[in-house]
């Protein structure tokens, strides 16, 4: 990290994971620690390396916008992105739309657009691979649905006041409540209908302001 700093690079970090995982996969806190404990070392790093940081997936905590506001207040070099579509759509849609809208407007310029789509040649060719990402599509139409569904879900969340089911099945629902959900069920989307200036910053302005300074 010191070498990267000397080369004028900025940092991107993935911190923590969804609350659904800490309630299930990481339930053993003696082994995995708590979710909040993941941020202790991260905040030390933010203070030690003062260059801009991008914390992926809404900083790993779309479940708690108040926590994210405190984090952004303490660290002026911190930026977030909205990648990891399933996770982001599910959790941001749980908040009252006005609260999420206020958050994005308050931190306009500190949140960048991202989808977390991992494109692969395997998505458009028949294959025998069983890896999670390559198994999501195996021909052109499936790949189109895979990619388009992510952008549709994010744009619908940010640009409209739509209320309805996400087009993306979310196995985490089944993970935390198998009696109620199947692995193919999807959560609701509750659009937050951001104003134009906040949308411009999210899609373009924040990245334009942040990245040219590193050129």
Structure in words:
The structure is a single chain. The chain has one domain (2-214). It is globular. A 4-stranded parallel β-sheet has the order 1-2-3-4. The protein has 11 helices and 6 strands. Helix 7 (85-92) runs parallel beside helix 9. The chain has helices spanning 2-6, 19-22, 29-32, 38-48, 56-59, 65-74, 85-92, 97-106, 140-159, 171-176, 196-210, and strands at residues 11-13, 53-55, 78-81, 111-112, 163-165, 188-190.
| Global mean pLDDT | 91
Distance between the termini: 19 Å
Low-confidence stretches: none
What is the strand arrangement across the widest sheet?
Answer: 1-2-3-4
The helix/strand class is alpha/beta
What helical percentage do the residues reach? 40-55%
Structural topology:
Layout (H helix, E strand, L loop, with lengths): L1 H5 L4 E3 L5 H4 L6 H4 L5 H11 L4 E3 H4 L5 H10 L3 E4 L3 H8 L4 H10 L4 E2 L27 H20 L3 E3 L5 H6 L11 E3 L5 H15 L5
Parallel strand pairs: 1-2, 2-3, 3-4
Antiparallel strand pairs: 5-6
Helix pairs in contact: 7-9
List keywords for this structure.
215 residues; four-stranded parallel beta sheet; two-stranded antiparallel ribbon; alpha/beta; single chain; 6 strands
Outline of this structure?
The protein is of the alpha/beta class.
